[in-house]
Structure formats: structure tokens, C-alpha cells
Specification:
The protein is α+β, with helices and mostly antiparallel strands and about 300 residues long. It folds into two domains: about 60 residues, no CATH class; about 200 residues, 3-Layer(aba) Sandwich (NADH Oxidase). The chain has a seven-stranded antiparallel β-sheet, sandwiched between helices. A two-stranded antiparallel ribbon has the order 2-3. The N terminus is likely disordered. The structure holds flavin mononucleotide (FMN).
Length: about 300
């Protein structure tokens, strides 16, 4: 490290000889409004982070707190896995109408080499919408159930076409369906066990969804927009706070499946992070805390159709 670099680093560190600045009245007031449990959690976060990064910012605060801690010795969950019952990994909507998806899937016969080369983010679409068979193939191949196994003391625990931490499948897929043959327009939930879509709210959601997005008009025109949400209750019991990181990794893994399967089906597809979280939560009717949005993904036919192409 050069002298200049040393200065640059030490400039950012607090001078130990200086008295600590007084806690601002605003911070003091906010801390006093917290419960004892919240104060303890905040204090631990601050302590752990300040020890490691004295000049921390908000990202360092969260990141440091969610690192695996070698001093943590409570492995009771792992010791009790033989008796603990795993969570349900599919949500129930008992009063909602369910539309079974066809199981005569389209072949996905492109080579992995071709798919990786052709995959790209595109959001212009042809006018014809999607067939039910294409939507069905897309959902099943990317995130459907491939078999059930005995796991977490559940006899028929589904195993899906995308990996997830502990196989706990915290990511759910909601679908804003604008143009799919045989399905009314509306907001749906993908039930992978039934391989069906569940109608949560019927109607044209195009402009409602666009209002949830940031400078992203293409959601108006996309025949289908998937909304990925993370369900913390499926993973927190096993991985604690650190599961907050895993659910985002699971979203990323699933996203690549969606990209590759969409590419194999000759669709134009695009991931989309430019959304207002709480407006999406309101659209879905989820609390935004135990279940929250992690990414959007749009899909539709290429403008000029044809064989597997780059168009
Ligand atoms: C997590 C994630 C979020 C993204 N969000 C957006 C987005 O909000 N808007 C957009 O137009 N593209 C978005 N993209 C697409 C990227 O811009 C695109 O993947 C990148 O430019 C590389 O291009 P390629 O996918 O064609 O290889 C996103 C991609 C990922 C993986």
C-alpha cells in the first residue's frame, strides 16, 4: 500500500483520540421508541459491524450481520432435523378458481450451448400472445415439480426443476396474464404441485402493473409478467437471518432457468428489477415482510416468430 493509499484509508477511520460525537436527538428518540428486543438486535448489528468496518454504511451493516458467524454454536435445528416437520412449500387459495395446465409439454430440444449463446434480455413482442401449452411448458420446465420425495418428515415433499437452499423452495411465482389463450386476464399464482394457475384477481392488470414499475413500459405489452416472491417462513426456521441472503440467490438461480427455458421456447424474455416493492406487495396482497417481491420477469413471442433465432 502506498503512503497516499494509507492516508486515504486512515482518513475515513474515526480518530480514537477524539471524543465520540453525541447521539443525535433524532437517533436517540428513534431508539427509545424501540422495544427491548429491537434495541438488543440493533445494538448487536451495530457492534458486529463496527468491529469489522468502523466506517460502515447501510449495506455493510446488513451484510456483516448476515454473514455466517464462527462463534455461533446453536445447531439445535440440525440436531433435530430428524423430528422437525418441514414447511408447506405451496400456498393455498381454497376459494380461488384453479385452471389446470396441459401436460403435453412442448419439446425443449435446443442444445445447452445454443441456449447459452442465444439467451438475451428482450422485451419486444409479437401480437399473438402465448398458447396455454407454451405457458405450461415454460412454468413446468423452469420451476415445476419433477418428483416427490420423503423429506423433512413429509411423505410427499415436492422436488422442483430449480435448486434452492435446503430444497425449501422459498420463491413463488405469481403471474400477471394479459394474453394467454384460454385464460382470463388477471393475476394468478402458479401451483406447481397441481401444475395449475390459480386466479387471484380477474381483470386487465396492465396499467396497474406499469404503475408499480420504474420507467418500464414494456410490462404494458408483455403477454405474461412473472412476479417472483420470497417466503421467509419456509427457510428462516432452518437458516435463521442468513436465509435472507439465500432467498435472493434462489431467485437468481430460478431466473436463469426462466431465461434458458424461455429461450428454448423461442420467446423474448427479460428480468426486471425496476419496480416499487411496496406497490407490488399491494398488487399481490402480500405483507412485504414475510413474503416480499424479489424480481419480475416478462415473456412473450418474438415479433417475427420463426425458429430458434436471435430476433
Ligand atoms: C437481476 C436482474 C435485474 C434486471 N433488471 C432489469 C430491468 O429492470 N430492466 C431491464 O430492461 N433489464 C433488466 N435486466 C436485464 C439486464 O439489463 C440484462 O441481463 C443485461 O443488460 C445483460 O444483457 P443480456 O441479458 O441480454 O445478456 C435485469 C437482469 C437481471 C439479472
Amino acid at each position: 500500500m502506498t503512503a497516499v493509499e494509507v492516508c486515504a484509508v486512515t482518513d475515513q477511520l474515526p480518530d480514537p483520540a477524539m471524543p465520540a460525537p453525541a447521539v443525535s436527538a433524532e437517533l436517540q428518540q428513534r431508539i427509545e421508541q424501540l422495544s427491548p428486543g429491537q434495541q438488543a438486535a440493533l445494538s448487536e448489528m451495530l457492534q458486529r459491524t463496527a468491529e469489522r468496518y468502523p466506517d460502515f454504511d447501510s449495506v455493510a451493516l446488513i451484510h456483516q450481520y448476515l454473514k455466517a458467524d464462527p462463534d455461533y454454536t446453536d445447531f439445535s435445528v440440525y440436531e433435530n432435523l430428524g423430528t422437525l416437520k418441514g414447511p408447506k412449500v405451496v400456498k393455498d387459495f381454497p376459494d380461488a378458481q384453479m385452471f389446470a395446465l396441459p401436460r403435453d409439454f412442448q419439446p425443449l430440444d435446443a442444445s445447452l450451448e445454443d441456449l447459452l449463446a442465444l439467451r438475451s434480455s428482450r422485451y419486444n413482442y409479437g401480437p399473438e400472445g402465448l398458447t396455454l401449452q407454451t405457458l405450461s411448458t415454460f412454468l413446468h420446465a423452469a420451476y415445476g415439480v419433477k418428483r416427490s420425495i420423503q423429506a423433512y418428515n413429509i411423505k410427499e415433499f415436492p422436488v422442483r426443476n430449480a435448486p434452492s437452499a435446503g430444497g425449501l423452495q422459498p420463491v413463488d411465482l405469481y403471474l400477471v396474464i394479459n394474453q394467454v389463450e384460454g385464460l382470463p386476464k388477471g393475476l394468478y399464482y402458479y401451483n406447481p404441485v397441481e401444475h395449475a394457475v390459480v386466479l387471484l384477481d380477474e381483470g386487465n392488470m396492465r396499467s396497474a402493473l406499469m404503475r408499480c414499475c420504474i420507467f418500464t413500459e414494456f410490462v404494458l405489452y408483455a403477454p405474461v409478467v412473472c412476479i417472483m416472491t420470497c417466503n421467509m417462513d419456509r427457510v428462516r426456521w432452518k437458516y435463521g437471518d442468513r436465509s435472507y441472503r439465500f432467498v435472493h440467490v434462489d431467485t437468481g438461480v430460478l431466473t436463469q432457468n426462466l431465461y434458458l427455458v424461455g429461450t428454448a421456447l423461442n420467446l423474448n424474455v427479460c428480468a426486471l428489477a425496476a419496480y416499487y416493492d411496496d406497490q407490488i406487495h399491494e398488487l399481490l396482497g402480500v405483507d412485504g415482510r414475510e413474503e416480499f417481491v424479489s424480481l419480475l420477469f416478462s415473456l412473450g413471442p418474438k415479433p417475427f416468430g420463426g425458429a430458434l433465432t436471435e430476433a
